[in-house]
Amino acid sequence: xxxxxxxxxxxxxxxxxxxxxxxxxxxxxxxxxxxxxxxxxxxxxxxxxxxxxxxxxxxxxxxxxxxxxxxxxxxxxxxxxxxxxxxxxxxxxxxxxxxxxxxxxxxxxxxxxxxxxxxxxxxxxxxxxxxxxxxxxxxxxxxxxxxxxxxxxxxxxxxxxxxxxxxxxxxxxxxxxxxxxxxxxxxxxxxxxxxxxxxxxxxxxxxxxxxxxxxxxxxxxxxxxxxxxxxxxxxxxxxxxxxxxxxxxxxxxxxxxxxxxxxxxxxxxxxxxxxxxx
Length: 278
What we know:
This protein is of the alpha+beta class.
C-alpha cells in the first residue's frame, strides 16, 4: 500500500484535480442559484446548512476518489454527519480522502460565489496533498507535501504581512464557539489586529496563501474544513498552531482556538494573544 501511495503521489494527482472539477461541474454548479426550498436543510442551526448539491457532490467524489486509489477511504462531511463513527478513519492506516463537497454552503445557498470544494489526501495523520476548487470563481489551488503550492499552475507564496499595518484576521462565527473560546478570541481585540467573521474556511486559507489575508483564528476542528487549507498555507510558506503551541492535528484532540498565518512570527503573536499573553 505504501508503494502504491507513493506512485500515486508521483503520477495520479492530475486525475484528482480532474475528478474535483467533474464533481463540481456535475453536481454543484448546475444547482448554483437554482436551489428549491426543499433542497436546503438546517443541520445545527441557520448557519449550518446542507443542500442536495453537498450530498450529491460528496457521493460523486467518494466514488471517483476511491476508484483512483484502491484501498483508500473517505471521511466526508455529510457521511460523518450520518455516521459519526466514520470519522475514526483519520486515525487508521489506510490512505484517507478528506472531503468537503461545498465549503461555504451558506454562501452557496445565498447565490454568493464565495464557496469551494475541498479535498485532501492524508495517511496516518499526515497531510500529503490537497485541492481547493472555487468553481464559481474559476480558481484551483493544489498543494503537495514538500513540493509547494500552486494556484492555476503558478507558485503561491504567503510572504510576511506588511510591517506597521494591522494584522487582518478572519475568525470563527460566534455560533461555533464555547464561552471559553469566545474569551480567547476576545484577546485579538487589541491594537494592531483587525478581525472579521470568516466566510468559507477553504477560501480564507487560500487568501492567506495568496497573501491577501494575514491569518485565521478558528474554534472548531472538523478535518474537512481545515485539512486542505492547512497544507496549502504550509506549502506556501505559512504556519499554524493551537493555543497549546502545537501544530493542528487533523484527527482531532486539539486545544482550541487555533491559528494559521502567513508566517511564524504572526502565528507566535496570535497564539500569545489567544492564550491571554501580551
